[in-house]
Known about the structure:
Elements: H1 4-16, E1 23-25, E2 31-32, E3 39-42, H2 45-53, H3 57-66, E4 69-72, H4 75-86, H5 96-100, H6 103-115, H7 138-149, H8 153-160, H9 178-192, E5 200-204, H10 210-219, E6 222-227, H11 230-242, E7 249-253, E8 264-270, H12 281-291, E9 292-305, H13 318-324, H14 333-342, E10 346-352, H15 354-370, H16 372-378, H17 381-399, E11 403-411
Parallel strand pairs: 1-3, 5-6, 5-8, 6-7, 8-9
Antiparallel strand pairs: 1-2, 3-4, 9-11, 10-11
Amino acid sequence: MQDAALRLKTLLEQLLGVPLPVRLRAWDGSEAGPPGAPALVVRNRRAVRRLLWKPGELGLARAWVAGDLTVDGDFYTALDLMSGLVWDRGEDARSLGETLRDPEARAAVRGLVMMAWPPLPPAPPREEVRRRSHLHTKRTDRRAISHHYDVGNDFYEIVLGPSMVYSCAYWPAPDATLEDAQRDKLELIARKLDLKPGGRLLDVGCGWGSMAIHAAREHGVSVVGVTLSHEQAAYARKRVADEGLTDRVEIRVQDYRDVADGPYDAISSVGMAEHVGSERYLEYARTLFTLLKPGGRLLNHQIGRRPRRDESAYEVDEFIDAYVFPDGELAPIGSTVTQLERAGFGVRDVESIREHYALTLRRWVANLEAGWPLAVRLTSPGRARVWRLYMAASAVAFERNRIGVNQVLAVRTPESGASGMPLRARTWG
C-alpha cells in the first residue's frame, strides 16, 4: 500500500503543531497535502534521516543539496509557503527541547525514526564547509572568501551575465535588463561619491572589476581594487586590460587591512562588509576612515537584517553559514550607522533599496536555471542546487522584509566641519 506521504505528513504535523502548507510526495509515489500546492518531493528515506539528525533549516538544506529533496511546482511559491515553518516561528516559539517534552511530539519522533530506518546519521554533502570559528582573522577570511568566490569565473558568468556585478542592481523599472540595472547601480555609486577626473578611488572587495572599470572609464578616476579571491583578480585584470585602462586601474589580491597607500578621495565598499563580522566592524570602519582624505566619501553598500529582541546573542543562518557565506554576518542598519559614526564618519545619507535586490536575485536565478546543464558541469549538482536555493530563498526574504540592503554615504568630515556636501545632497537621481 502506497501511504508513505500521508504517514509522513501526519507525523510532521504532530511534531510541528501546524498543518503542512505544501504537498508531500514520497519515495513510494504517494501524495498527501493541500490540492494544487507545490509538492515537496521526498525522494528517499535518507531525507527523513537528515531531518531527524539535524531538525530545522540545516537538515532541510542538507537534504536539498544532496538531492534527497526536490520541489515540483513553482519554486518561489514553495519557498514562500515553507518560510512560515523555517523563518516565521516567532521568538516565542517552543524550542526543540520543549517540543520533545510533549508526549504527542515524542510519539511523532518515534514514528519518523521507524520510517527512516535504519536511523543512522548520513554524512553531510561534500559542499558543506566545516566552520571552526568566527574570529575573522586574515587567514580565516581568505578561506571563507575562497569558498564562495572561487567557484569558477565561468559559473559566475552564467549567473551574473555580462555585467559581472555580484550585488544588488538599481532598477529603473521591473522589466529593464539586468545589465542596464547594474550599470545604473554603478553610476549611482559614482555620483554619490562625487567622482571627478584625477581623483583616487579605493574599491574594497572589487569582485570582477566592474565598479573599478566604470569609475575609471566614465569618471576619469584612478582606482585601486582589492579582493581576496585570486580568480576574481585574474578575471578583473584581464577586463581592465581589454578596456585599455591599465594606466588607471590596479587590481590587487590584498586584505583591506593591509592597504597602506592612502589617502583616497573616495572609497566604495559594495557587498563586502557582510564578511567583516560584528567583532571586527569598528576596526573595518576605522581602517576605511584613515584611508580617506579629509572631506573624502565612503559608500557602504551592505545587506542588513531586522533587529532581534536580544542583540547580545550570537545567531547565524545555518544554511548560509554552512554552504554559502562561511563566517558571514548581517547587522541591522542602525548598528552599521552607529559603528561608522563611532569610527569618526559623518553619515550623510541612508537609502534602502530592498525591493531592488529581490528583482536582482530573481534574474540571477533565471540565468542559472537557463544555464543549468553547464552550471552543473562547471561545479557539481550539489553546488548548483546550493546557489539556486540560496538565491531564490534570499529573493523571498527580501520580498517579505526579513532582510534589506542599504547604501550608506558617509564623509570623513574635516576638523573645520565643512563636509563639502551640497545643501541639497540628493542630486544623484
